[in-house]
Specification:
The protein is of the alpha/beta class. The chain has a single domain, classed as Rossmann fold (3-Layer(aba) Sandwich). 43% of the residues lie in helices and 13% in strands. Strands 1-2-3 form a 3-stranded parallel beta sheet, with helices on both faces. Strand 1 (27-32), helix 2 (44-66) and strand 2 form a beta-alpha-beta unit. The longest helix has 23 residues, at 44-66. The protein starts with a helix and ends in a 6-residue tail after the last strand.
Length: 134
């Protein structure tokens, strides 16, 4: 989890920024964090890795701004998303807990929305929660 969410993200971001800089092109880095207060025993490393994603994204945004590079940096922080990480029934719907969950398409739509923003707009962070949740 740490390898994927932190080390993998860092390595891919480094390569993407270097490539965008070398080509002198506009770019957009979009990282997926997590909006949750859940830190149960089985969630500690996940929560820590996603907290690192948030910190790395903020640091990258500051570094990009300082260097005046034409790269936008966004963080999308969804709450729970109905994925294979949750138990599912035969229809593929999450069965554990009573918490409403987002669908993967909701997160994908937020990515598209960030990418579609005018070049003069840097969407710093988008927090996603199911309608009606607290």
């Amino acid at each position: 989890m740490i390898s994927t969410n932190v080390i993998g993200l860092s390595m891919c971001t480094r390569e993407a920024v270097q490539d965008m800089t070398r080509r002198n092109t506009n770019g957009h880095i979009i990282n997926i964090g997590h909006h949750s207060t859940a830190t149960g025993p089985s969630e500690a490393f996940y929560a820590a890795s996603k907290a690192a994603v948030c910190s790395l994204t903020a640091g990258l945004r500051a570094e990009i701004a300082e260097k005046k590079l034409p790269i936008r940096v966004s963080l999308i922080s969804p709450s729970a998303v109905n994925t294979e990480f949750f138990s599912t029934d035969e229809d593929g719907k999450a069965t554990n807990g009573k918490q409403a969950k987002l669908e993967a398409q909701d997160v994908a739509a937020a990515v598209v929305w960030c990418l579609a923003a005018p070049p003069s707009v840097d969407v710093s962070e988008v927090v996603l929660q199911p309608t009606g949740s607290r």
